[in-house]
UniProtKB/TrEMBL annotation:
Name of the protein: DUF554 family protein
Source organism: Waterburya agarophytonicola KI4
Annotated keywords: Membrane, Transmembrane, Transmembrane helix
InterPro entries: DUF554
Pfam families in the cross-refs: DUF554 (PF04474)
TM spans (from-to): 20-39, 46-63
UniProt entry tagged with the keyword Transmembrane helix: yes
Length: 65
């Protein structure tokens, strides 16, 4: 019971946090790119997605106000 209360207050709610949704979306694209690389469908450089984890929420913050 105590751990669920602690976790519930420390983890932001995805419905109320668009930044969390943006970071999750970028992470999902990276996982899809890794899958395409493993299946040898297309060669995607996944490392070029890493700056997007920080830049995408920043762009949202700048254009939301």
């Amino acid at each position: 019971m105590v751990t669920s209360v602690l976790v519930g207050t420390s983890v932001p709610d995805a419905e109320n946090s668009p930044y969390l949704l943006i970071i999750t979306g970028v992470g999902g694209l990276m996982i899809m790119a890794i899958g395409c690389n493993l299946l040898e469908l297309v060669k995607i450089r996944v490392g070029s997605f890493l700056p997007a984890i920080a830049i995408a929420p920043l762009i949202y913050f700048l254009f939301s106000y």
